[in-house]
Amino acid sequence: QKEVEQNSGPLSVPEGAIASLNCTYSDRGSQSFFWYRQYSGKSPELIMFIYSNGDKEDGRFTAQLNKASQYVSLLIRDSQPSDSATYLCAATTVGFKTIFGAGTRLFVKA
Amino acid sequence: DAGVIQSPRHEVTEMGQEVTLRCKPISGHDYLFWYRQTMMRGLELLIYFNNNVPIDDSGMPEDRFSAKMPNASFSTLKIQPSEPRDSAVYFCASRKDRVGWNTEAFFGQGTRLTVV
Question: Residue B31, exposed/middle/buried by CB under 10 A (0-12, 13-18, 19+)?
């Protein structure tokens, strides 16, 4: 079992819709969780981090964490074509290493 | 700060040759990570350092891979001998060590390695 798992997609949503991206992790000792966005041919860049159970909102993005279920999600409201990218979920585990999921490809159709 | 700097950006080499990838982390960052990204396997952690000391190299695929961090501002990832299946994008990332866990890793631009 991979330490951080994501559905590879692709996930396709129409412009203006809500995109929902999901991630599960296996190490219960993980404390911090991150969502990165990666455009084709580019390096990953941080969108949000979360470390407390519940929701955290930043503009059109909302990260959700449920430690009991070992589940992290990212909601993108009012999706735009410019949001089309691969979204990587990451967890900082015991030992302070940062492990990434394989990523979910998102396509936002104009 | 210029961010994490990797070199070269692109490398094409023949099978059997030695390849050295280089990374300069962000000044003041305590952790340095080497990742490999492929379509099939995603972003895999190869090895990471804390204060120049290798902490976990369990992700290094074979003995052909080695990494060093001789000082706080420089790290190398070496593949000797290289094979076509090593073709991938190799990312270096650095992170500052703070109390608490919510510190993100900053990535370099990556090195696209092609072994023919």
Answer: buried
Contact status of A46 with chain B (Cβ, < 8 Å): yes
Q: Do A51 and B33 touch (CB under 8 A)?
A: no
- What pLDDT band is residue A25 in, cutting at 50, 70 and 90? very high
The C-alpha angle with vertex A105 and arms to A51 and B85, in degrees rounded to 5, equals 100
Q: How far is B24 from chain A (nearest CA, A)?
A: 15
pLDDT value at B100 more than 60: no
> What does chain A come to in residues?
110
Q: Is the pLDDT of residue B101 over 60?
A: no
Residues of A in contact with B101 (CB under 8 A): 31-32, 51, 92, 96
Residue A64: pLDDT above 80? Answer: yes
Q: Is A101 exposed, middle or buried (0-12, 13-18, 19+ CB in 10 A)?
A: buried
